[in-house]
Amino acid sequence: MNTTPYSFDVSGLADFQQRVLESSFNQPVLVDFWAQWCAPCKALLPLLEKITAEFRGQLHLARIDCDAEQSIVAQFGIRSLPTVVLFKDGQPVDGFSGAQPESVIRELLQTHLPPPAETCEDPLQQAQDLFNQGHFAEAENRLAALLAEDSNNAAAHILYARCLAERDELDEAQRILNEVTDDTYKKERAAALAALAFLKQSKDLPEAALLKSRLAQNPADDEATTQLAIYQLARGQYETALPALFGLFLKKPKPAENPAHKILLQVFELLGSEHPLVVDYRRKLYQALY
């Protein structure tokens, strides 16, 4: 299935521990237990994705294929599908079984989350929201219309370049970013360049399956660890890549001698100083250095 920054598939107990239980300390995670053969599950998923997207990062959606992840299913005693469970602060706090109407799902969420922010009428913000939700083509169309009216909008150019990069137009994205000289958007340009760098690097890397196979045979293979982390960063899998990079950093905690430190700093630029992962890993770096 396609994923967005707020919606993802869980693969294994370790992934569940990190991306659901641990992440739920930062924002609630709605977990959808489903199966390919379950028609009500397939009917419910678009509604869950729609509601999750409205929260713009205040809520994440995790999907668990019950046929593939039976150990997780057994751990939580899932007996009927679909079953949806809301996790908060590492614990299940609410949920329901069966395909419920939108009003019931929203009522459940209102007990545990503030209401989602109202939709913004600013076209640039609308494009940013679409980009954050993984709707890159629609965001690109909005930005193209905006730039047709205001060709000097530096912020729109930067976001447009990121949309191009997401559909592998890397050279054109680089050209646009090189032409942005407005220092007002220095941080946004740096973030876009970091994202572009990871995408470019990932094109020359072995397939992720091969890298995972190498690490299964030799967990101390630092090259494979680094390459897999870059591959994951290029696909927005920050919660998976950052622990591996930090582990590499700890092996040689001297920034000048450790390429993992440089990659971590690029991720910090990409996500921004207020992102929970950046706050967490900046603290860990500081503790490791001092």
Enumerate how many helices there are, as a single number.
Answer: 14
* Overall geometric form: globular
Helix-strand topology string: EHEHEHEEHHHHHHHHHHH
- Which architecture of the largest domain per CATH? 3-Layer(aba) Sandwich
Major sheet strand order: 1-3-2-4-5
- The chain-level mean pLDDT equals 89
Structural class: alpha/beta
Helix content: 55-70%
Q: What is the CATH fold-level name of the largest domain? A: Glutaredoxin
Largest sheet: 5 strands, mixed
CATH homologous superfamily caption of the largest domain: Glutaredoxin
Based on CA atoms alone, the radius of gyration comes out at 20 Å
How widely separated are the two ends?
43 Å
Poorly predicted tracts of residues: none
What is the domain tally?
3
Which keywords apply here?
290 residues; five-stranded mixed beta sheet; 5 strands; Serine Threonine Protein Phosphatase 5, Tetratricopeptide repeat; 59% helix; 14 helices; 3 domains; alpha/beta; globular; Glutaredoxin
Can you characterise this structure?
- The structure is a single chain.
- This protein has 3 domains: 7-110, 3-Layer(aba) Sandwich (Glutaredoxin), CATH 3.40.30; 123-200, Tetratricopeptide repeat domain (Serine Threonine Protein Phosphatase 5, Tetratricopeptide repeat); 205-289, Tetratricopeptide repeat domain (Serine Threonine Protein Phosphatase 5, Tetratricopeptide repeat).
- Strand 4 and strand 5 (91-97) form a beta hairpin.
- The chain contains 14 helices and 5 strands.
- Helix content is 59%, strand content 10%.
- The protein has helices at residues 13-22, 39-54, 70-75, 102-110, 123-132, 136-149, 154-166, 170-179, 186-203, 208-217, 222-234, 238-251, 259-271, 276-289; strands at 7-9, 29-34, 60-65, 83-88, 91-97.
- Strands 1-3-2-4-5 form a 5-stranded mixed β-sheet, sandwiched between helices.
- The model has no long low-confidence stretch (mean pLDDT 89).
- It is α/β, with parallel strands linked by helices.
- The N and C termini lie far apart (43 Å).
